[in-house]
Amino acid sequence: MRSYRVALIALVLAALAVVPGGAGTGGAQTRPLPPGHPPTGESGGSPSIPGPPPGSGAQGQGLTWKTPAGWTEEAPASSMRRAQYRIQGPGGPAECVVFYFGPGQGGDAQANAARWASQFHRADGGPVGDAFKTRETKAGDIPVLVVEVAGTYVGGMGSGPSGAERPNYMLLGAIAQGPDANWFFRATGPRATLEAQRMAFDGLIRSIKRGQ
Prior knowledge:
Elements: H1 2-17, E1 63-64, E2 72-74, E3 81-87, E4 94-99, H2 109-117, E5 120-121, E6 132-139, E7 142-153, E8 166-177, E9 182-190, H3 191-196, H4 198-206, E10 209-210
Antiparallel strand pairs: 1-10, 2-3, 3-4, 4-9, 5-7, 6-7, 7-8, 8-9
């Protein structure tokens, strides 16, 4: 009986010796990665984890910034949009979009500010006049042109079908000078909502920094 028990123990120990990570091997047990997990590679180093999409509040190509509290980040609706946010407020939802068109693209700041203003008019159909304001500032060492327009919005890129008139609308914009091209921060929506979010938008602009 004793020899039978010794033989049985020997068989058990022999079986454990060939299990990866089991008794007697000293290694970690190998298990399949969860679905969607990035591969860890053959070297056993850190996994290669994809970074955030370009232009998100944490990581951008050229510039970075902080997303204001209460703004909801959405998947950009086109490749020209590097970030897109939904903004809730008393006048109804508004939208903020960040555009970057690539090195040397997008045009100069003043021309774009004038184009944004051309998408608004007064209730009588005339130009917005002094309801179109610009000022120059800096976010750290980054030159920024800040734009404000109010009136009847007549449509344009980023905020609904062209020609769809929206009274009592507002645009809060900023054009920041990136390393190789301008970046365009453009919030449009009901005036009551954007007036309430003015400080949040200003905070976003002040948080702009050069990317790593």
